[in-house]
Amino acid sequence: MFIRSSNVGYPRIGEKREWKKALESFWNGQINEQQFIKTMEHIRLDSIRKQVEKGIDLIPIGDFSLYDHMLDTAFMFGYIPERFQQIDNALEQYFAMARGTNGQHALEMTKWFNTNYHYIVPEIGQTKPRLVENRPLKEYNLVKETFDLETKPVLLGPITFLLLSKQYERHEWRKHLAQLVPVYVELFKQLSEAGVSFVQIDEPILVQDIDDDIIDAFRHVYDVFHRDVPNINLILQTYFDSVSHYREIVALPVAGIGLDFVHDDGENVKNINIHGFPKDKILVAGIVDGRNVWKSSLVQKAKLLHHLANVAEQLIIQPSCSLLHVPVTTKHEHTLPTELAGALSFADEKLDEIRMLTEYMNGNVTIDQLIKYDEQTNSYLAKFRKQQEQTNDISTVPLSRTPYNERKKAQQAHLQLPLLPTTTIGSFPQTSDVRQARMKWKKGEWNDKQYKSFIKNEIAKWIKIQEQLQLDVLVHGEFERTDMVEFFGEKLQGMACTTNGWVQSYGSRCVRPPIIFSHIAYQQPMTVEETVYAQSLTNKPVKGMLTGPVTILNWSFVRDDISRKHVLMQLALAIREEVLQLEKEGIRIIQVDEPALREGLPLKKEKHASYWKDAVMAFRLATSSVKEETQIHTHMCYSQFEHMMHIIDELDADVISIESSRSHGELVSSFETYEYQKEIGLGVYDIHSPRIPTKEELSEQIERALRVLRPEQFWVNPDCGLKTRKEEETIAALQVMVEAAHEYRERLLAYGGMKSWK
Ligand SMILES: Nc1nc2c(c(=O)[nH]1)N[C@@H](CNc1ccc(C(=O)N[C@@H](CCC(=O)N[C@@H](CCC(=O)N[C@@H](CCC(=O)O)C(=O)O)C(=O)O)C(=O)O)cc1)CN2
Ligand code: MET
Ligand SMILES: [Zn+2]
């Protein structure tokens, strides 16, 4: 059997984030549309060229995007919400949907499965879909002309697309699907006529717990595709876990089935062993981890491949998912310890692994070569394994606090906050001044003292601004942090940070997830100096600002040979140390952010309970050792929180702020059925859009929340941190927010006073 190599998707951002720079220059008006399109084409073709050079047989196209692939799909099929329809220029319209404009709010953004990638949630409405533009075809032709190369168009499948979209009645989803299927058929026909042979159609929804109706829809849709475009070889692609209905899925009339053999807990292989794999289909095997950065053990992978080659008649080897979730290349990492760098494999190096495994299976590479490849990684990982496996004794660390009602009184006596207190989520604008200052310091042009004094000036400036705005609980602004996770990664022992390991998070925004390589240990105070300095400038309370253990874990690359729970508890203990340091230095409100709490939830329900148990325990471990008068806050964003009120409750934070404005009333309505007792701020405006909200809108948001929450438990705050906004936008928006809160506060007081509620 001849075995081929393939890729599922390649990072969009370019080796040095050229993509991000082009987008932002275009948005800022520094380059025009033509220059922008040219630059983007260049980045795309460069990625294709690289994959050609790496010897990948099936190179994906259409995986590239100017913002996000869900948005692309919606756009391509004409799902343009009414409020954007009068925009003539297509590109302008596209970005308006993604980012909003002064008059139009953006589409919602949420997490892509259990990753830190965010997609734009299409609004289906009453739109009848049509093929506005065959993007994959255009791309296919361009690449064919440029490189004389056959490629594999990648599309999001109609079922996943619809199920992840919103603004339609769920019971009518089959009607919308029926409208969409012929549009896909038309698209496939055009591809087929142009000479396309393989098409990858992503249906990751198949790894979730789906019901019979969805399975039935799969049967129907793929029958139609098979009937109407028999010449196209469809690869039905799944990733992030095992498929839930293995037998039904491998029976679908497609050419190949793409399975994830890395994040499936062994279930996909188990199913193959029990039920076999159809002789007439290609097994498209996701072998190399597309979501983590460690070199593969090629010997182990080879064993698995031999097994799969025995079961299937045809085999393709590829990463477990799109390489969108890992950095581009290790080539530009010069500051990591050599040994660690030698154990890492980013997108480009993963493709080399794919190639090597394929060559091995085809008899062109020997097992000795694989053994040699593995030696270095193994010796490195083994060295730290012992250290990381050390356990900390947590039996004496408190996991609960004084009962809520008691500590609430102590906190109120101490803090004396007004009704509907106003606050922000932590970060203030990371302006180019701030980033340049940090760059100068990192390059050694500035010494520590210069950099520190710059940061202190920023803090002082923003304490003043917050006082002028009359916010009630202030923050220091997080100017010293590149990123809320990376910052702690730099300070904690056992974690390493890259210089160029960027991964797209949403739109043009990227993160460099730190790498947890060894035992996590607290070394010294990380946030005390800045927080205490900020507090020294004001009589209002300043919130200490930390990132929680679950979020640090989920937003880092973690070793895959040590239990995640083990690492989580090490992180929790380290954050606990910092909480106690802040408290000792007189900080009375401490926020421990957990925006990634929901994101890390496994895709399969059977794994939920144990995830929640560990996550709650870690948060409580980190936050339960404080005195009763110390107020613990937490913050969450970018996820669907509707069904997790009980978990939020169990965290036992005194105050939680949750993002809610983009999803409008959906979160609020969960309080109709769940009686939440503690304090809560439902974000009153979207911080992703440059647009300044009006007072009326904000009052409406407050009013809506107060229909289900008691006034004395409600806080007024934005959706999330303000680091991506401009200074003037931030101040203008906060001013409106505070005014709206004050007006509401007065109305409530005039109405009967707080007494009746207390
Ligand atoms: N890890 C993580 N995940 C998260 C979030 C988060 O905050 N962190 N928030 C949610 C949404 N995601 C976000 C992800 C990234 C950014 C973001 O602002 N990223 C920045 C990069 C931040 C950063 O680390 N910057 C560095 C590097 C700066 C840099 O690019 N320097 C320039 C020079 C400076 C300049 O002129 O800008 C250069 O090297 O060329 C710094 O501050 O020091 C970006 O893409 O622009 C925001 C939200 C969910 N997931
Ligand atoms: C993604 S959650 C962000 C929380 C953090 N404290 C900030 O304000 O940026
Ligand atoms: Zn947030």
Structure commentary:
The chain starts with a strand and ends in an 8-residue tail after the last helix. Strands 1-10-9-8-7-6-5-2 form an eight-stranded parallel beta sheet. Strands 15-17-18-19-20-21 form a six-stranded parallel beta sheet. A three-stranded mixed beta sheet has the order 11-14-16. The protein is globular and about 75 Å long. Strand 9, helix 11 (298-311) and strand 10 form a beta-alpha-beta unit. 49% of the residues are buried. The chain has 26 helices and 21 strands. It has a domain at 411-430 and 461-751: TIM Barrel (Alpha-Beta Barrel). The protein has 758 residues and is an alpha/beta fold. It is 44% helix and 12% strand. Residues 20, 116, 430, 432, 435-436, 438-439, 482-485, 505-506, 509-511, 555, 595, 638, 723-724 line the site of the ligand Nc1nc2c(c(=O)[nH]1)N[C@@H](CNc1ccc(C(=O)N[C@@H](CCC(=O)N[C@@H](CCC(=O)N[C@@H](CCC(=O)O)C(=O)O)C(=O)O)C(=O)O)cc1)CN2.
